[in-house]
Design a protein that fits this description.
about 260 residues, alpha+beta, 10 strands, about 20% strand
Length: about 260
């Protein structure tokens, strides 16, 4: 089955790429023997996550193609999904001198997409967990004592977990967080990533952050108090792949509003 899909991809069949991603979603190792061939798929967009388990031989081959001036920018984005020592060394070099045809901004933007980046001293830093769990809704009281400074309604406790739970500890290991993590937001006014922020402490403390940006869609609207729904998120099943979509603990990322990291 994989052989047929790879042949179709190399023949220019875009649909085969998405079929292949779905086929190996739960068993990415099954694709390893075919990754070198897939580097020749110049005319088909391949989901970069297909290469997340590429070995050093495939990494070296892709790096060599980029260094040789390959016009396929996709090779660079694919390499960010592999994140091995070969890739780290290549990106350190490319940050100093971008390869032909690749803009410096492209290099800066693609790294965080797949969960890692470089510190100012050149060390690689994980910004996305290696283990991820689905976040699923559960019924129960979810109103916080704190109030929204905009509408005056009680804030919503979206998440209340603790690293005493091994699943939570594994998902948050890359952050160094230890203790209780409680996330609050306003259900009506502001619940979007990169817009809503909470200041948290390991004892479960959580307060509305003044860095929360007021969304433009609230301008001119009369805001009325309303209680959040009696439901919050809790830890569900482990995801076979941290790149899968949906609410996730440990797999996603956003920039800190204070440090921009």
């Amino acid at each position: 089955m994989i052989d047929d899909l790879v042949d179709r991809i190399l023949a220019g069949d875009d649909d085969a790429a998405w079929e292949l991603e779905e086929l190996v979603e739960d068993d990415p190792d099954a694709l390893r023997p075919y990754l070198s061939r897939l580097l020749d798929a110049d005319d088909v967009y391949l989901p970069e996550a297909l290469f997340r388990d590429a070995g050093e031989d495939v990494q070296r081959e892709a790096v060599a193609r980029v260094d040789a001036g390959s016009p396929n920018v996709w090779l660079v984005t694919m390499l960010t999904a592999t994140h091995g020592l070969v890739v780290e060394a290549a990106f350190r070099r490319w940050r100093r001198q971008p390869p032909a045809g690749i803009e410096a901004d492209t290099l800066a933007n693609v790294l965080p997409r797949y969960g890692w980046d470089f510190e100012t001293d050149g060390r690689a830093r994980e910004i996305r967990g290696a283990t991820a769990y689905a976040l699923v809704p559960e019924d129960g009281p979810a109103s916080a004592e704190e109030e929204c400074p905009w509408c005056g309604g009680p804030l919503w406790v979206l998440l209340d977990v603790d690293t005493a739970d091994p699943r939570v500890a594994a998902a948050l290991a890359h952050t160094g967080w230890q203790g209780r993590l409680r996330i609050i937001a306003c259900f009506l006014c502001c619940i979007y990533p990169r817009v809503s922020f909470a200041e948290v402490t390991p004892d479960g403390g959580a307060t509305w952050s003044p860095r929360t940006a007021r969304p433009g869609y609230l301008d001119g609207k009369k805001l009325e108090k309303a209680a959040p729904p009696p439901v919050r998120l809790t830890v569900g099943e482990r995801r076979p792949d941290r790149y899968l979509g949906g609410p996730t603990l440990g797999g996603d990322r956003t920039e800190c509003s204070v440090t921009a990291r």
